[in-house]
Amino acid sequence: MLHGEVTRTRALLLLALALTVAALPASGSAAYAAWDWPVDGGEVAAGYLPPTSPYGPGHRGLDVAAPTGSVVRAVAAGTVTFAGRVAGVGAVTVDHGGRRSTYQPVVAVVRSGAEVSRGEPLGRLSPVGSHCGPRACLHLGRIEADGYADPLALLSPQAQVRLFPPHGPAPVPPEPERVVPSGDLLMPVDAPVTSRFGMRVHPVTGVHKLHDGTDFGASCGTPVRAADAGTVSSVGSVPGYGNRVRIEHGGATATTYNHLASFAVGAGEPVAQGQTVGAVGSTGLSTGCHLHLSVLLGGQPVDPEPLLTAP
């Protein structure tokens, strides 16, 4: 009798286990591998069209229309394996463990080898090399072990799909808010870079942490220029950063100017590109006169240097 009960109990446990396994999604299914959309509020301008041969014609990705300067984000966590230019067009590739995502045209703010999380900014959408001219759009690619595949199959169904007519003009999009043109952030001071963006030991606290901007070795009192036009969102003292000016440029882009000796603007004021916003100082946790410039995309700090141009 006891043996029969044990047998029945074991059978019930095996049945429960089998049902549980059957209910789980298959490995690699969309439930586990779904991607986030790489740009906010984008519209699908052109879908994936597989080529008939490895080198034949086709559309090996998804075109997502978005305003120039839009923040381009990683669709999933992974490692940046390429960030640079291909035939003059900025591109980024992220490896997600055998599956890769590609993004172009992009002004990258990440470097090859960087680990990125889902939704982390990779750069900004550039108008140079757009597949959707005269509109700007992001070409998102998906590469599996056996070749190209449709990115839309992994994307959550949140974007508005509006395929453009093959003949005639493309529909006119709503006028977007002003955004920062790609690669058009002005150098805030004429001075050498003394400390770059990235992990380092803080010279004052001795803590190993992210240096969330670029330091310029300028003399105290040197005028500091706005990297681009925008609106001053805050002016004041911030722990560690000393006297700071923050400017919002639209398109989820902001810049901050830190360790200032004095301010030349007030909160709420519009500023033009190149306008003086303050003077270099050594306030906050600082070892000497310098400017610490930070660039924020979607609220996250990114490397300013690839985005800066000389006056």
Automatic annotation (TrEMBL):
One matching Pfam family: Peptidase_M23
Keyword Ribosomal protein: no
UniProtKB keywords: Hydrolase, Signal
SUPFAM superfamilies tied to this protein: Duplicated hybrid motif (SSF51261)
Signal peptide span: 1-33
GO molecular function: metalloendopeptidase activity
Domain M23ase beta-sheet core: start-end pairs: 58-141, 210-304
Protein name: Murein DD-endopeptidase MepM/ murein hydrolase activator NlpD
